[in-house]
Amino acid sequence: MVGNLSPVLVSLVFLIINMVILSLILLAQSRGTVSQSHQDTQEPDDEDSKDSSPLKTADILGWEFGYAQATASEAMQDRHTMMNFYLLVVGIVGTGVLAVLGRQTDLPPGTGTVLMWLLVCVGWLYFLKLIRLRQAWHDSALAMNRIKDFYIEHGTEFDSNALSQAFRWRPGTLPAPDKRWTVFFYSAMLIALLNSVTYVAGGFLLDLQTTLSLPVTEQWLLFLLGIIFFAFHIWLYSAFLKPSPS
Questions:
Q1: How far is 117 from 157, CA to CA, in rounded Å?
Q2: Strand (E) or helix (H) holding 217
């Protein structure tokens, strides 16, 4: 029975390794965010804050707003390009594995599992990159909305209350970075789904004959691990993008 369950056990070990590594990455980001937040709250030195040279504030704010707008747009475009490349990689690897399985080859057992689980690792890299693009978009949107607030407070052409009604998004009403049902969230769930399917397929290919000979109830253990794997993606997406406490 232990030998029969080896594909399930190996898959479980691989799942645990994934969870540990990604949790460590999440912990590292959380510590970095707290450290950066502490630095941002430090008071600037009085000598450094003094500047006797005149500055055209409107021009500087316009340039800053344009930069934030461009980076937000680039984050959306990069997400689209990244997803296309990821789907291409999944298609190539999946087709290659099926082609190998359909022929008599001298490849060692478990080759399909190695390829599938390498694809899982690639999927994690794309998943983390997608999260970083969402963070970049939110940072750019927040920068633009802070400039809006500055103009509302200091603008002279309109009353501040009247001007504030022109903007739907403000720093306090900007969608949270971990908001569900956005294009970033759907893209992340697509990666999660394909990653989970690839993970389960790799578990079956570890010893296909042995796995297929298992009772149906035991085969479903692999599918259960796949569901856990998918749920871990969803939790990780929210955990990475959860706003840090101020």
A1: 60
A2: helix 216-241
CA 88, 93, 96, 97 torsion-angle sign = negative
Q: Could you give phi then psi for residue 157, rounded to 5 degrees?
A: -80, -25
> Does the predicted model carry a pTM greater than 0.85?
no
Q: Which two three-digit tokens encode residue 44?
A: 């600037």
The DSSP secondary structure of 84-116, one letter per residue, reads: HHHHHHHHHHHHHHHHHHTS---PPTTHHHHHH
Single-letter code of the amino acid located at 82: M
Q: Tokens 């999260």 appear where?
A: 131
The per-residue DSSP string of 110-149 comes to THHHHHHHHHHHHHHHHHHHHHHHHHHHHHHHHHHHHHHH
Taking the C-alpha atoms of residue 182 and residue 188, their distance in angstroms, rounded to an integer, is 10
* CA distance linking residue 204 with residue 221, whole number of Å: 11
Compute the distance between CA of residue 163 and CA of residue 157 in angstroms, rounded to an integer.
9
DSSP state of 1: -
Please identify which residue in the block is written with the tokens 């594995």: 97
Kindly give the confidence (pLDDT) of every residue in the chain, 246 residues in length, as a single tens digit, with 9 standing for 90 and above: 344 457 888 899 999 999 999 999 999 988 877 666 555 555 445 444 444 445 556 666 777 778 878 888 888 888 889 999 999 999 998 888 877 776 666 677 678 888 899 999 999 999 999 999 999 988 988 888 888 888 777 766 666 676 676 676 677 778 889 989 999 999 999 999 999 999 999 888 877 776 667 677 777 888 999 999 999 999 999 999 988 765
Closest CA to 141 of 110, 106, 179: 179
